[in-house]
Amino acid sequence: MNDVAHEIAATAARLVVEEGLAFGPAKHRALKELGLPGRTALPPNELLESEVRDYIALFCADTQPGELLALRELARVWMQRLAEFRPHLGGAVWQGWATRLSDVDLALFCDDPKSAEIALINQNQRYEVQTVRGMHGDDVDVLSLHSFCEALGEDIGVHLRIYDLDDVRGALLPDAQGRPPRGDLQALERLLAA
Q1: What is the 3-state secondary structure (H, E, C) of 19-50?
Q2: Residue 30's CB: how many other CB atoms inside 10 A?
Q3: Are the C-beta atoms of 187 and 133 separated by less than 8 Å?
Q4: In the chain, helix, strand, coil percent, each to 5?
Q5: Using CA atoms, how far apart are residues 179 and 104, in angstroms rounded to an integer?
Q6: Is the pLDDT assigned to residue 194 strictly greater than 90?
Q7: Section 180-189 average pLDDT
Q8: How far apart are the first and last CA of the chain?
């Protein structure tokens, strides 16, 4: 990897940790902050994640473990509430580099895509619907809501990606480092117990 890619990744990592930006927007903003042309090749997510972990170890080692624990406990609450939809935790909270600015990302696997919305309505939850790229490259609906995290004393974004029940088969294919990209409630419980 060249020096420019590392500089972009290091700048983007600061934006991810300090401002809660997602990887894509953080990379593009890093280009602007560094005064690089918009066509500059962006570093891979693996390099950015490594820089995020380094940044956290250097600047947030005293606060991040507690914040991660609080977010994982909040994820457990939502996974229990939505157990009928086979929830799987992903993203920063699953991978272990989340901070208080990170959102909780859950994948739900439903027989009927509207059933998750009905469950939220029955729980008197207010949510917004948007469409994003899913794990197989297809567009999927995301139900986004805010949930108060008592341990952090603030609202945290919770995003529920809605998948067909058949998609659960490919949900645990390992990433480039051989890690599962998400885990079910039992896997989360093991992380919390460790």
Answers
A1: HCCCHHHHHHHHHHHCCCCCCCCCCCHHHHHH
A2: 25
A3: no
A4: 50, 20, 30
A5: 19
A6: no
A7: 94
A8: 34
In whole angstroms, what is the distance from residue 161 CA to residue 82 CA?
A: 12
pTM over 0.85: yes
Query: Exposure of 102 by Cβ count < 10 A (0-12 exposed, 13-18 middle, 19+ buried)?
Result: buried
With contact defined as beta carbons under 8 Å apart, do 93 and 104 qualify?
A: yes
Residue 144 host element (H or E): strand 139-149
What's the confidence (pLDDT) of residue 135? Answer: 84
**What distances in angstroms separate CA 183 from CA 31, 68, 154, 161, one per listed residue?**
33, 16, 25, 14
Q: Is 76 helix (H, G, I), strand (E, B) or coil?
A: helix
For the record, the structure tokens of 59 come out as 């600047």
